[in-house]
Amino acid sequence: MDSATLHEEIHSFFESAPPLKESAKITDKLNRFIHFDSPSPGKGRRVVCVTSGGTTVPLEQRCVRYIDNFSSGHRGAASTEYFIKAGYKVILLYRRGTCQPYCSSLPEDPLLECFELADDSDFRVRQSHSEAVKGAIMNHHAAVAGGLLLKLPFTTIFEYLQMLRIIASSMKSLEYHAMFYLAAAVSDFYVPWKSMAEHKIQSASGPLDMRLMQVPKMLSVLRTEWSPSAFCISFKLETDSKILLEKANMALKKYKMHSVVANELLTRKEEVTVVTENGNISVRRDKTRPGSEVEDPLVELLVKKHSTYINDAIAQDL
Ligand code: PAZ
Predict the structure, then answer these.
(1) Ligand 1 atom, smallest distance to 268 CA
(2) Among residues 32, 75, 109, 285, which one has the fewest Cβ atoms lying within 10 Å of its Cβ?
(3) Where is the DNA/pantothenate metabolism flavoprotein C-terminal domain (predicted)?
(4) Domains of the chain, start order
(5) What is the pLDDT of residues 150-175, one digit of tens each?
(6) Which residues on neighbouring strands pair with residue 231, listed in sequence order?
């Protein structure tokens, strides 16, 4: 597809999308977070935008039904913790209701399982969960109060792409110090808002015939226009291992990514392959360490690659 057609498609996607609620407030939050809300702001501070969770495609404007994309949000939540540990400020663009940073040791239904009634009018943290709850609260508080974590939620593909555009524009001035770590599972097809049924689609009308449009590929405009100097990592998920690396390589070239992280659905928590123009690197979880996560060595590798990218950019500017 030529660039003019892509721009037209992107323009019509944003034009027809329902306006993002509180977009001015989000922009303001972002600018404060990126430039000020930190004990040591400064130009050299690295900021990463981590995207996490799946986008939905509503089928009705007053949405009752929607198409969803698989992602628990674990990758994004765990990676956020490792980026913060590595000294980055993290903007976490996450799907509402998915895994959150610092919550992995909590039970799945924390509110109901973490607390117990002390008496008729009071409650307390259950003894068995008190260490995990305390740890989660302290780590989360330290990240947010220290100006290292800003969480922004989305649900639909419309919200996700509008927010990604705002974030990328806000990060543009960081140039090489910005990173995008795009782990969210983003819908490939959508129903344009204007051609969407307003009310719940009626089953009495018989089989449902629906035409889905292709979501324009925004990765190329992220790279060339929204935040052109940023270090960009995208993810590729496949269920068929035979096509995974080929597809990741195609994405690397087509969207001019700096790396593409290739993973298979069934083994995604054990190993991933980082595809770069200089070859592929396999990254595995350290099985000898109980509780170890593949995101630990993955983030470590990408932080090193980002350092090289920044140093090369500085050397070229000299
Ligand atoms: O969120 P999760 O930990 O369950 O899974 C992570 C993932 C598989 C969604 C992610 O690593 C990924 O590959 N995201 C991109 C998916 C895609 O190809 O659109």
Answers:
(1) 8
(2) 109
(3) 47-94, 169-279
(4) 3-117+139-201+209-317 (3.40.50.10300)
(5) 999 999 999 999 999 999 999 999 99
(6) 179
Q: What separation in Å is there between the alpha carbon of 248 and the centre of ligand 1?
A: 13
Instruction: Write down the residue that tokens 């950019």 correspond to.
Output: 313
Contact 156, 19 (CB under 8 A): no
Q: Which residue carries 């307003």 as its tokens?
A: 198
Q: Which two tokens stand for residue 45?
A: 């501070």
Which amino acid does the sequence have at 183?
A: A
Q: Please identify which residue in the block is written with the tokens 């508080």.
A: 141
Residues 6+ apart with CB under 8 A from 69: 54, 55, 56, 185, 186, 187
236 lines ligand 1 (CB under 6 A): yes
Q: What's the CA-to-centroid distance between 48 and ligand 1, angstroms?
A: 17
Instruction: Give the residue ranges of the chain where pLDDT is below 70.
Output: 37-43
Q: What are phi and psi of 102, to 5 degrees?
A: 65, 10
Query: Which amino acid belongs to residue 311?
Result: N
Do 185 and 55 contact (CB within 8 A), yes or no? yes
